[in-house]
Sequence to fold (446 residues):
Amino acid sequence: MRPTPLMRSLLVLPLLLALAGIAAPAQALTPAGGGAQPSDPAAVTAARACAPAPPSAAGAPTVALTGPSGAVAEVPADLRAACLALIRTDLPRLRGPKPGAEPPGFGARDLQAAYDLPRNGGGDRTVAIVVAFDDRTAESDLAVYRDQYHLPPCTTANGCFRKINQNGGNTPPPTTDPGWVVEAATDMAAVSATCPDCHILLVEADNDLLTNEIHAVGQAFQQGATFISMSFGAPEFPNQTLIDAFFHHRGIAFVAASGDNGYPNPLYPAASQYVTAAGGTSLHRDRRLVPPFTRRGWSESAWPGSGSGCSRFDPKPPWQHDPGCANRTIADVSAVADPGTGIAVYATDPTDGAGWQVIGGTSVSAPLIAGMYAVAGTPGANDFAASYPYARPRAFNDITTGSNGSCGGSYLCTALPGYDGPTGLGTPHGVRGLRHGAPDRPRGVR
Fold:
């Protein structure tokens, strides 16, 4: 029997799909030594890179922290802000992929495709990444990542990469921490993926005390960074609104991880009214070989770990209008954070050596979003960049499935059409929703 046109089209369909990039994601490869496939969620295990930050002890002494405007805030001296990276433990560290092979985890090209980003965005804008302790191999690990994904070099020599301490000097903090090394490598990889032409300023706080990390944020601002990524969080505390002075800057995009403990566990600084809180999703390629295909080619759902909830202390900013929280609601926007669909990161463990790992947590989504803000362009001098997504909600992929806790099915912990707590307004579809410009018209208005 001669093949009909329909039969011929079905025979060639797999080839067309492969050319279009609709295939198994890079992280489906099993690294040397074996390991569970991400397509089997029950086999995915992950561990925190940093121990969770406990609440401040009752009656703990305080430290005076002076903000850029001169306002003084009394911060609990024992309050720590943990990094929020999650490391896949069912996949062993990959010392190096075979020639021509991809490391496990989504790479730069995957992330650019998933969020409709250009391959050369950023225009030499600077993204500051705030971490704690010293990452002694930050620049060399960054070089391996960027070389793997054919991104332009970002080095001290060419002026793209710079590392400073919380006081702006070149002397690094005296100690290093394996978890924070992973955090720094994750943040640099994420920014590199979404903003390949961005400069990277790595600001290292002396340790993970919140006072020092906020001091490092202030240093990033003083260094002229317009986009600041913060993949750390501390439990909320009563006078955190005084710390908001560090984020009360127009023309600056502050992005913080919303947390990895689901609902209702808001963290600071994501709870600040002036910060864009980045929630988390599970990201999957569309693998269907027959119609209907998703128009986007990717699908996302709310990641169960994504931090969300109502702030206990920060007021609701004027651009938020959801009815279920009298105060600030977390999150604002989101990106991939599920370690089961995590990103590829190259890091050098001080005791275990270097290699590729798959990393998740909202430590991934925050620097991804910060890089996207940079691609979108410099915020307006009179604008709070955190307001931009709310002016253009149609510029986001609305996430409508999944949840991160128990709240009676309300939007605070359930992904629903429109705004919701776990994913905010959704994930960026390009960067139109992260820049200054005319707001979306109401539906039905031309």
